Amino acid sequence: MNQLTGLLYGAFLGDGFALGSHWIYDTSLIANEFGEIASIVAPLPSTYHKTKKKGDFTHYGDQSLVVLKSVSEMDGFYLEKLKQDWLAYMSDYDGYLDKASKESLELLSVENNLGSPSDELGGFAILAPIIVKYHQDPRLKEYIEATIRLTHNNDLVIEMAIFYTNVILKILAGARPYDAIEALAPRAGKLINQSFQAAVKNINDSAVEFITKNGQSCHGKHAFPSSLFVILKNQDHFKAALTDNVMGGGDSAARGMIIGMILGAYLGYDALPKEWLNELNHLPEINRYAALL
Prior knowledge:
By secondary structure, the chain is mostly helical. It is about 60% helix and about 0% strand. It has helices at about 1-20, 25-35, 60-70, 80-90, 100-110, 120-125, 130-135, 140-150, 155-170, 175-185, 190-200, 205-215, 220-235, 240-245, 250-265, 275, 285-290. The protein is globular.
């Protein structure tokens, strides 16, 4: 239970911690405005998150909270409920609407269970509640794929999501992140294996160096190698991992949720920084719905 709770709360921390510098690509600007980020900070007034304040979530964390609420009410798995709950929330969302959400709102408003063709890894980042709820269900990966395709109908995203889900399952069974990734990468797709090899080869680089070189954006071909590197470099240090991630700039929120769920599952809830958790404005809601999983 400590691992599953760590997975869930770690993902939400990864998003909340990234809000302040999210989608700032200039790493010098991040360093100048925030210094080395070691606590939850408010977003700058000129960012994409003008409606947000310190302790809030980006649009990823907000959607993950919708997923958490939805699956907490389920006895079984019901894709249509997830779809309708997502549509109801995002149709009246007062935060930033990314392209994938805009396209999916239009596509899902008709009789369709396939959303945007977006290749952004954020489609998987919001799904920690599904992994926690159904981690022992043999159809877990089917649920993951079906849910992702509601907003990110893209085979590369699915491939990366299934890889990270398999990593998490190995961690829940007792493996260290490095060992799980090393075992799974050679049997995964070309980009996944290349990302692992690049991370190992450059493990002594700083996260800022690696992320800016290999990709800061939300697209899977960038977000995957960058998130993988931070996990491998900091597998025993949750706080350092989230700090490294945000200092690398770009779409640090999607990366942060994935880093948070994997290291949270490995290190457990007890290792999460409670001073950060207590600053999350939605913590009471997370507690309420998490208790029902």
